[in-house]
Sequence to fold (319 residues):
Amino acid sequence: MAIVVTGAAGFIGSCLVSFLNKKGVHDVILVDDFSKTEKSSNLEGKEYSAKIDRDVFLEDIHRHKINFIFHIGARTDTTEFDTSIFDKLNESYSKALWQHCSDKNIPFLYASSAATYGDGKLGFNDTKSIKKLKPLNPYGESKQNFDTWALKQSKSPPFWVGLKFFNVFGPNEYHKGRMASVVMHAFNQIKENGSLNLFQSHNPEYKDGEQIRDFIYVKDLLELMWFWYNKQSENGIYNAGTGKARTFNDLANAIFLALHKTPQINYIPTPEDIRDKYQYFTEATMQKSIDAGFNTPFHSLEDAVSDYVNNYLVNHSNY
Fold:
């Protein structure tokens, strides 16, 4: 019986495959669009039983003996406004997997997103109704649409959980370009220029660089997913952050510290096309997961950044 990982060549999916291998799991079916060669290095050294194109997988999913699906694959570009792409990859594909898992009694974990919370005015609480949430972009809307759909289903997998990923960073995101984490962009800037540009604050309640995010290291996210894989009870939608938001200045200082450099930070205007949709505060409430039994300590921001910078970014290494 195999474990399926969709988005297996991507950032989080490929890290999950490595994590499963480290846990002794090698019967893994990788599902993705493998025609994108820029992600090929993410699969080097991984052990798996099959590698299947995402469209082909849906066609022959009935042929495989599966005991769990990690549905991590999605279109994640927050600046993409072609809703048909999100309809196909983030909604229709997810529904097809859900329905198969429901029919065949296969546990199902999928990636939702903190983008569903929109500007954050309604908070970041995973115990409240999601009906009133208003995402700021089509990506967030697609995740919100599937979350809402899932909660309405009378027929569901024997176990299912949706995890709202917050600001995830870590190895294997080299291919993501502009959608890579702030940590990777900052590392590249500092290596090239010796200094770092951060967005100015255009909100009088926040000083420059004091905008706040819930940054979660991918290794901590993997532990959270492993917890749910083993628990397989208390279905629902849960936050996937640290619950301890930090400022961009904190993040920048951690990167300079990891590189043994004196911080040099410049504050530049936030582009006008994203200024009105810019989030100044995100922080996951994690009590719901804690109440469910999750108690694995997370890395501090400083320790996570140091590990990522010194063990991966410096050598362009993969996890």
Notes: The chain has a mean pLDDT of 95.
